[in-house]
Amino acid sequence: MKLIEAMKQIKDLMRKAEDLRTKIAKYCAYQSPVESPTYPDQKGQVSLWLQSHSDILKEILRLRVAIQRTNLNTTVAIELGGKTVTKSIAEWIHRRRDLAKLEVAAWQQLTNKGLRTGKMKNTQDEIVQITLELCYDPTEKDRNLDMYLSEPSTIDGRLEVINAVTDLLE
Prior knowledge:
Blueprint: H1 3-27, H2 42-73, E1 75-80, E2 83-88, H3 89-108, E3 118-121, E4 127-130, H4 138-165
Antiparallel strand pairs: 1-2, 3-4
Helix pairs in contact: 1-2, 3-4
């Protein structure tokens, strides 16, 4: 089974579990003799649904753990900023989820803070020339911002392919 198949199967199993919970809630009790049971052995039917629900949750757990195992043990090379970077699928997921955004946020903090060059009086009433000193390289800032802003979509594209071709590690 491929990673993508396991993810889709989990989604389908979650839907089936929700359907069972709905049936369990609807048919778990009735008023006798005002109502008659919907199923010949309604108590037995509810028990079967509960067992099926439990079995489905066990399968979801098995698949989730297999996906995690696969994500931790499968490395993927992705080209970022002209360099090939190799990380596990799990690491790329974390980069995609929030870490790339945090990289962007750090680089966006590099500004001129609204400061200007010009002349001003100092404490001795002397006029001095003020220059603006940046403590970073603007070219490097622009290059890194571009790279980190595009990183999530680059990761998405690569992982879509990897998820389709990578076998689930059981």
